[in-house]
Amino acid sequence: MRIEDEIKQPIFRDQAQKAIINLVYTAGWLQLRQAAAFKPFGLTLPQFNILRILRGQHPLPATVALLIDRMLDKTSNASRIVDRLEEKKLVTRTVCPANRRAVDIRITPAGLELLTRIEEAGLLEANGTNHLTEDELRQLNALLDKLRTEA
Amino acid sequence: MRIEDEIKQPIFRDQAQKAIINLVYTAGWLQLRQAAAFKPFGLTLPQFNILRILRGQHPLPATVALLIDRMLDKTSNASRIVDRLEEKKLVTRTVCPANRRAVDIRITPAGLELLTRIEEAGLLEANGTNHLTEDELRQLNALLDKLRTEA
DNA sequence: TGACATTTAATGTAGGTACATATATTTGCA
DNA sequence: TGCAAATATATGTACCTACATTAAATGTCA
């Protein structure tokens, strides 16, 4: 459905305004579907992303600073997301012996097993981009990268 | 900057995964800039959007149902956003006389004046899409609309 | 007419972001 | 050595979304 119809706004000032609204709306649409997919596993999207980063480090630990560096949203509060994962016994937190300011965060066997189950469910494949061809996806990536170019 | 460099992930599974991450990242990037622009005026983005919808109705009132229908994020809680606008005296809430379940929400003169000031500041123009040509913006809109096509 | 369903908005709860501040530890350097 | 600056994380506050529930008013229909 065209964005005009999705939000019942028939006229935009220009293509730029329309593109911005379309972009934010489409990202929200994607996130909503992804969040719904993760819900049966008791995870939110940020929690899932952090678990994946931790698996990437495994069996080495990660620090909060490393998580922030790798996350999509740099300013988000990794500390509190780790709180939730710790409550669910999916990660452990121990003071880093080499630098007692830092915290070593590690994914647990339960966390690894959960990631495997989620991936086996094929959530990541049915993700909403099925209607675009390889070439269209490339175009989209190029346009988004260009859009973010700073003056 | 390419999305690979923005989030320090050199390899994606495929163009589709890259496009999804790129899309969510770019939308967040845009929203962050927009939120920063509204901050000096004491408004958040959802508050600004609701004020604009109310101005569109002015001098007629809007109901909460109408606001939800027009908003980008359909499931968001318009009621609580109106709470904040009411505290700031930018809108009024009165029980609808024709249907006492509904609430008539109206923008105040202060609300209208604030919108004018924001628009005069030119925030909506410097919005981050300056680097794309008219044709590229059209392409982007078409790709996003197609992406959201349901099976 | 009166019981029941529907509509409209508000509220409770859990989790998230953004930004400022606090606390503990380590580092650097006079 | 000792003290200030820097670092690493945690916490407080305000606001947001998502989803479920509640409360009040209205509509429906036997």
List the helices and strands and how they pair.
The structure is a homodimer of 151-residue chains.
Chain A: H1 3-6, H2 15-38, H3 45-57, H4 64-70, H5 78-87, E1 91-95, E2 103-107, H6 109-120, H7 134-147
Antiparallel strand pairs in A: 1-2
Chain B binds a DNA duplex (30 and 30 nucleotides) through helix 2, helix 3 and helix 5.
Shape of chain A: elongated
Task: Report the major sheet of chain A.
Answer: 2 strands, antiparallel
Mean pLDDT of chain A: 90
Beta strands of chain A, count = 2
| Distance separating the two termini of chain A | 33 Å
What value does the Rg of chain A take, in angstroms? 19 Å
Low-confidence stretches of chain A: none
Strand content range of chain A: 5-15%
Query: Into which percent range does the helicity of residues of chain A fall?
Result: 55-70%
Structural class by SSE content of chain A: mainly alpha
Oligomer: homodimer
SSE topology string of chain A:
HHHHHEEHH
| Strand order in space, largest sheet of chain A | 1-2
Most extensive chain contact?
A-B, 52 and 52 residues
| Number of distinct helices of chain A | 7
